[in-house]
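Case study.
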Amino acid sequence: MSGTSHDPQVTTETAKELGLHPEEFEKIKTILGRTPNFTELSIYSVMWSEHCSYKNSIKWLKTLPREGSRLLAKAGEENAGLVDIGDGLACAFKIESHNHPSAIEPYQGAATGVGGIHRDIFTMGARPIASLNSLRFGNLAEEKTKHLLRGVVKGIGDYGNAFGVPTVAGEVFFDECYHTNPLVNAMSVGVVKVGKTVSAISYGEGNSVLIVGSSTGKDGIHGASFASQDITEDSHEDLPSVQVGDPFTEKLLLEASLEAIETGAIIGMQDMGAAGITCSTSEMSAKGKHGMKIYLDRVPQRQANMKAWEILLSESQERMLVVVKKGREQEVINVYEKWDIHCEQIGEVTTGDRLQYFMQDELVADVPAESLVLGGGAPVYEREYRQPDYFRHISEYHLDVIVEATDLRSIAMRLISSPNISSKKWVFTQYDSMVGIANTSTNAPSDAAVLRLQGTDKAIAVKVDCNARYVHANPYVGAMIAVSEAARNIVCSGGTPVAITNCLNFGNPYNPEVYWQFVKAIEGMGEACRKFDTPVTGGNVSFYNQSADDGPVFPTPAIGMLGVLEHYEDAMTLDFRNEGDLIYLLGESRNDISSSEYLSNISGVRFSPAPHFDLDEEFNLQQVVKELIQKDLIESAHDVSDGGLFTTLLESAMPSDLGFDISTDENFRKDAFLFGESQSRVVVSIHPSRQDEFLDFMMGTEVEFNLLGEVTPSNIVVDADDWGDVKEWKEEYENAIGNAMSHSVEATEV
Amino acid sequence: MKLGVVIFPGSNCDRDLIHVLENVMQQEVKVLWHKETSLGDFDQKDCIMLPGGFSYGDYLRSGAIARFSPIMNPVIEFANSGGYVWGICNGFQILCEAGLLPGALLRNANQQFVCRNVFVTPVTTDSAVTNALDRGRAYKIPIAHAEGRYYTDAKTLKQLEDNQQILFKYCDKSGEINEAGNPNGSLHNIAGICNVSRNVFGMMPHPERAAEEALGNIDGRFLFDSFIQFQGRAEVDVMDDLLR
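After joint prediction, the assembly is written out as follows.
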C-alpha cells in the first residue's frame, strides 16, 4: 500500500501535523502491520480525533446512567437517543455543539450546527418537530460579541426557518469567558412510530452503498480535527474547516429520506457530519461487522481533481450514506429523484471488516473498520486531574462583606434589563417558533416548551438548561443543578421528565484543572439523573473551548431534557391569571446570593460558591408541584432561577400585564430574598377560593411554603412601596438586548 | 367544493394547512405536486391554495423561482378563468411574482425575520375570505417572514383602495390601524389583498397557525369559515339558478 506519488511522505511529523500523538502513530502502524499512506493516516487522524473518538471522555461518560425502561436505544448506539413515549410513538432527540466553526464564521457555523443535528434525527426515520439551542457569548457591550450574536442568531434562524422546524426554546448567556470562544449548541427533537426507525448500520454482502444529497467539495476538511484544538490567533486560517449550509437541500433530503424508508429497501442510513464519508462508512460497517468497497471517483464532486483524502474527509453538508438491499436500488433512487436529490451508488458491502477505498480502480486506502471507531480500536485515555487553583478565591468568599443594597428598586431594574436576565425577544422573534402547529407555548407560556403530538392527546415538554457560573463555582453541584433545573421546568409545565441529552462544553482536557471540572460535572450529572430517573441517551463532548487570551470557558454541560404529558390539556403555564390570586413561594428562602447574577454582575464579585442546593429537597419540591398541577389547585407555576425571586414574579406578571403586591421576610437580607438564586423554589398562584384546599394539601407535605402576597391589576408593590406599573418594567425587560444590538457598528451599516 | 394545496420544493407549511383544512375544517383536500402540468378536475367553485415556506430555497427573491414552476401555468390559467386562488405567506409572495396580485413583498423594515402573533383587521367584507368577519375587530394571527413588507406604487395603491382590494391591515390589539401595530413596515399597514376580480387572495399572516383550541388561538379559523360559508352560499346560488 503506497500513496500516490505527490502525497507527502508519512512520518511521525506528518502524524503530528494531523493532530495524532506519536504513540497513536505507532498504534496505527501496529494495526496495519505497515506504515500508513497519507490517505490512511488522514482517516485515522479524523476518526481518532477527540470529536469522533471521545478518547478523553468515554471512560467517564460510561459512568452516567444510560438505561431505563423507556429507552429504545442505548447512548451512543444510534445517531441519537430514542425514547418510548407511549401510544406507539418514540422520540429521537440529541444536542450537539458547533462552537469552533461559530467562533470563526458565526452565520455558517451556527446554520450547519442546526442542519447537522436535524440530520441525525431524520436519518433514524424520525420527523424533527422542534429545535432548541444553548448559546454563550462574551460581554454584550463588546462589538465582537454583537457581531457573533447577530451572525449566530441569523444562522440558526435562516436554517431552521427554511427547513421548517420550529425553534421552541433555548438559552442565551453572556460572560467574558466566552469572548473568543462562544458556545453554540443545537438540539433537535423528532417523533417516529415505534418499529419504524432506521439504524446506522451496514451488512449483507453485495448490498449497495449510495451517497445521497449534495455533491462533495473541499469544505470542512479536517473539521473534526479543527474542533479538537484550542482556538488561537491562527484559527482564522482554518476557515476552510467551516462548512456551508443549504437548508433547502436538507428539506428535500428530509422528505425524500422519510419516503425512501417507507420502501423497506433500506438496510441502514447515516448522515455525514464530522469526517464525512470516512466516519459514515466506518461506523456503519463496524456496527454491522461487515466491510465495504468504496469507489471514491464515483462520488459526485463539486471541484475538479479532488484527492482521495479530500473526498474522504470533506464535511460538505446535506449528504447521507444509505445502504440498500441488492436489487432494490432503483426503488430508492426513484424516491430521491422525485425530490430532485442526487443519488449515486459508490460501493458495495463486503464480508470481513476491511474498508477499501478506490480511485480509478487503484486501491488508495485499506483499513479495518473496527480499528477506527469508538468502542473498537480508537484510543481510550485516562487523564489526570486536580482541583483548580481558583477555588482558593471561592473559599475566601463571605456573605457578610457584601454590603446589602438599599435602593432595591433600582437594583431590580438594572437586573431585569441586564443581558442575562432580560427577555431574549430580540433573539427568538427571529426564529420561526410556530411552524408545524405543535408548539402550544406561543399562547400559553410555560417554563418548558410544550408540543402536542398530532393524532394523540399527548404532548412533550422540552427544555435546555445550564447555569455555567454555578458549574464553574462547583462543577459537581452545578451539574446537578443543571439537570434539576431542566426537570423543574418540565414539572412546572405539567410534564414528567423522562430522559436527557447532554452537550459537554469544556476547555482543554490535557489541562488537569479543566479535566477536574469535567470529572466532577459528570459525577454530579450522573447523581441527579439517577434521582430523577432521566437516563442520558446521548449527546456530545466538546473540549478545547479555550483561547490563549481568555483561558478555558466556564465548564458548560448543557442539559437537554425531554418530558412527557399524557394529556396536552394538563399543561401548566407560568403567567398570573387573575387579579386577587394569591402568590405563594414553595421551597425555602435562604440568606444566599452566591453565584447569583446580582452578586456577579451588579456587585461585581466573580468568585463565590454555587448557590444552595440539596438534591432530596429539590426532588420533594418537584413531586409537590406535580401533585398541585394534577389536583388542579394552582393557576400558574414558575421556577425561581437566574435573577432570583423578583425576576420570577415579574416574568409571571408580564404576559397579562398584571402586577403583584408582596412582602419580603424579615428573617432574610432583602437582597438575598429578592435576588438570591438558592435552588429548589417555585412561585405558584392560586385562586382565593382554593386557598383552604391548597393549605390542607401543603401541610401534608415536607415542602416549606410561604404566602408572598397577591396579584394586582397593574402595579408592582414590594413591602408597601409602589415600584410602578408592570408595563414600565416590561418595556425595559423586553427591549434591553434589542437596544444594545441597535447601538453597534454593524447595525448602523445595515 | 375541494381545496388543492400545492407543494413546491421547500414549502414547509403545506402539512399544517392540509391538517387544518382536512381535520379541523372537514374539507376535501387534494395535494398538487409542483411538477404537475394540469390541475385535473378542479372547477370554478374550488380553490387552489399556495402554502408558506421557502420555495426553491428562496435564495433569490421570495417566490421568484416558484412562479416558473410547471404547476403555475395551470394555476394562472385557473385564476384567469375565475377560479379561486389563495396564497399564504410564501404563497402570497409567489402570487405577486406571478403577476396574479399587484405589488411586491420587500424585506422587513428591520431587516430581520420576524415570527410572532400580530393583529389584523378586515378592511372590507366584500370578499370570500373576509365576508363573515367583523369590521373593526382585531384578529390575532401569527406572522413568520423576512420579506413581508408590502409595497406598491401610488397609482396601484389608489386602485387597491378604490376597488376595495385591501383585505387586511395590521392593527393593534384594540383594532386601531397604527404604526405600533405594523410589524414589518408594510405600506399603509397592508397585510393581505385580492385582485380586481376578487378571486385571488394573498396574505402574509398564517391563519392555519391559529385554528385550533389546542394552540390557544382560533382567530384564524374565522377566515377559513368565512371562505367555506361563502362558497357554500355560492353553491346554493348556482343550484337556485339551475332550479329557476
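Observations recorded in class. DSSP finds 26 helices and 27 strands in chain A. The longest strand of chain A covers residues 127-137. We will return to this complex in the next lecture.
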